[in-house]
């Protein structure tokens, strides 16, 4: 069996081989520059334990697997943020396809699992492509079970028929007193904080959501401050001065495509086709920008949003992901 060196990834390591590895499992590509930028947004690790003795705080250690020639053939990362459910850590493991089955994945996994157990994590969660049978089997053998199914959908904008009567939802909302704007039209911290409160009220309604909600500065960093999110891509529904709905797009520079990152409407405004109107306005924006396609993900239990995306707008079903969970304590 080939021997592999497993080591912690250092600050001076290049993110280029990691980007190459991640792009073997992601449907939208990333770059070393984006990974470096993301890493610089994360504060130094500072784990602690709450009054119940449960793991809390920050950390994001990473490991690399190298073959005998010094080539990086594997990457693993365990991470958590302070607003994550106590004890929970997210886990990523990727091995080059050509060296799978050679022991690199097992060696890398064993090191990261030992670290997670040492810091007293209670659960590990990971996302695995639902058609990657070997990776699902790898996880199952190590005690992971599928907790949720996340569906992926794509809308080919070159074949989109324009929405037809669906666009009447926009006019109907406007006739009922709802107006539509963008964050580019409503700049400044006051608008950003109103948008934050809207996200904070609606995001916990997503099936599978757990934990607390990040504070404003961290929310801003990881939502409207992300690479690819521009103010004109954040579409807002208003009732007077109140922000009551949002649809946010993120553009990938490598593909030119957009990811429909989030849609949320306050509970008291639901069932009025406002979410549909927001999504159609996002589609219209993408088409005007010459975007080839839109991609999005939905939890299998999020039936209302799946109906809007697939049954009404016409997003095409794509292979998705299993959320796999392992209990440690």
From TrEMBL:
Keywords: Acyltransferase, Transferase. Residues 4-163, 178-329 form the N-acetyltransferase domain. PANTHER family: ACETYLTRANSFERASE (PTHR43877:SF1), AMINOALKYLPHOSPHONATE N-ACETYLTRANSFERASE-RELATED-RELATED (PTHR43877). This is GNAT family N-acetyltransferase.
């Amino acid at each position: 069996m080939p021997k592999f060196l497993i080591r912690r990834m250092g600050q001076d390591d290049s993110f280029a081989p990691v980007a190459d590895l991640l792009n073997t499992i992601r449907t939208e590509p990333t770059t070393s520059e984006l990974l470096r930028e993301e890493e610089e947004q994360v504060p130094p690790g500072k784990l602690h334990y709450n009054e119940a003795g449960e793991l809390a705080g920050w950390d994001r250690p990473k490991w690399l697997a190298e073959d005998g020639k010094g080539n990086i053939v594997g990457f693993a990362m365990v991470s958590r943020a302070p607003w994550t459910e106590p004890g929970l850590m997210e886990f990523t493991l990727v091995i080059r396809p050509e060296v799978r089955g050679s022991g690199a994945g097992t060696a890398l996994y064993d090191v990261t699992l030992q670290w997670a157990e040492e810091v007293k994590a209670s659960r590990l969660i990971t996302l695995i492509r639902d058609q990657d049978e070997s990776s699902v089997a790898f996880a199952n053998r190590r005690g992971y079970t599928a907790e949720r199914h996340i569906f992926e959908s794509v809308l080919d904008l070159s074949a989109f028929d324009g929405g037809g009567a669906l666009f009447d939802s926009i006019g109907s909302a406007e006739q009922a007193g709802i107006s539509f704007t963008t964050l580019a039209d409503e700049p400044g911290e006051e608008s950003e904080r109103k948008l934050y409160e809207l996200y904070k009220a609606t995001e916990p309604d997503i099936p599978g959501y757990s934990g607390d909600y990040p504070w404003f500065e961290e929310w801003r960093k990881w939502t409207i401050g992300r690479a690819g999110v521009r103010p004109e891509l954040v579409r807002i529904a208003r009732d007077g001065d109140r922000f009551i709905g949002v649809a946010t797009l993120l553009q990938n520079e490598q593909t030119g495509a957009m990811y429909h990152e989030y849609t949320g409407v306050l509970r008291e405004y639901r069932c009025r086709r406002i979410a549909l109107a927001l999504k159609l306005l996002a589609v219209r924006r993408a088409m005007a920008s010459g975007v080839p396609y839109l991609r999005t993900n939905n939890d299998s239990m999020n039936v209302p949003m799946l109906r809007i995306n697939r049954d009404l707008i016409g997003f095409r079903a794509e292979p998705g992901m299993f959320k796999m969970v392992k209990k440690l304590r």
